Amino acid sequence: MFNFIKNQELEIKEDMISNELIKDLELRDKVVVINFNEVWIVIPLKHLAYFPVLYFKNKDIIATLIICLVTLRTMFVYDKYNISHYDDYQIKLADNSSSKKIKDFDDINDGVKKSQAKIQSLRSALIEYGDVKYLHLGKNIKEVKPMVDINYFTNLTDKDDKIINEIQFHPKTLYTVIRYSSKNKLKITLVVPEGANVSEPYGYEPKKALIDQYLAQMSAKLIEKKAFIYHIYAYTARIIYENAKVITL
Predict the structure, then answer these.
(1) Calpha distance 158→163 (Å, rounded)
(2) Domain that holds residue 23
(3) Can you tell me the distance from the alpha carbon of 209 to that of 240, in angstroms, rounded to the nearest whole number?
(4) H helices of 52-149, where?
(5) How many angstroms separate the CA atoms of 84 and 52, rounded?
(6) Do residue 136 and residue 25 come from a single domain?
(7) Are residues 81 and 119 both part of a single domain?
């Protein structure tokens, strides 16, 4: 199912970002939303299956959008990284230093300027942000093969194409991860969206799923604890963060 033979990265050119709606994008489609140069940019999740690492430049600034296609953990980092390799359910990243130091996803949370890459439906993004621009990757996608079968984003199988059993919710339900430090120790809280069920992936409408409401209520504590927020699939959350605190809305 996965094609990890070649690292697929792409440097984003200014003319690839525009107000023009992407032709094959529908309101129910899942997208990643980031803010760069004070502009909200919408990127179809299905397009990131081709390029899981995107570089954005502005004068002397370079930022990297990184998505782990296995777990859907995603972040926008103000530095240059690329995917070194995958180690089971862990994505390993190489930084831009001369030593190309290898780090896993959680390691780059500390000491690096970053911002959240929010995963949601296009409908939800338009309601939340209103004035957005779209990243057009169509021409580039035609030249490469996807690193993951697009069906993986919504089906019932794991990265090895095996059916996932013994899980309370649909395995591709989107959990919200709250990562923070407490008493000098890394802590993880997983937030399960309201309405999560076994029949369909849920959590891509954060207002409807009460995720936005919960985060707003907890904002003071999250700031105090210097929390960083991202997302993860339900089935991989129980593997990577098996000791995490779980809150079901």
Answers:
(1) 6
(2) 9-141
(3) 23
(4) 122-129, 138-141
(5) 12
(6) yes
(7) yes
Query: How far apart are the C-alpha atoms of 78 and 203, rounded to whole Å?
Result: 27
- The helix/strand count (H/E) of the chain reads as 6, 17
Q: Domain count for the chain, please give it.
A: 2
Structure tokens at 218: 């907890």
Q: At 234, is the secondary structure helix, strand, or coil? A: helix
Q: Please tell me whether residues 28 and 99 are part of one structural domain.
A: yes
- Per-residue pLDDT, averaged over 192-205, amounts to 95
Among candidate residues 198, 238, 231, 249, the one with its CA nearest the CA of residue 120: 231
0.90 cut: is pTM over it?
A: yes
Q: What are 45-82's pLDDT values in tens digits?
A: 999 999 999 999 988 889 999 999 999 999 999 989 88
pLDDT of 88 higher than 90: no
CA–CA separation, 216 and 118 (whole Å) = 15
Residue 103 falls within a domain, yes or no?
Answer: yes
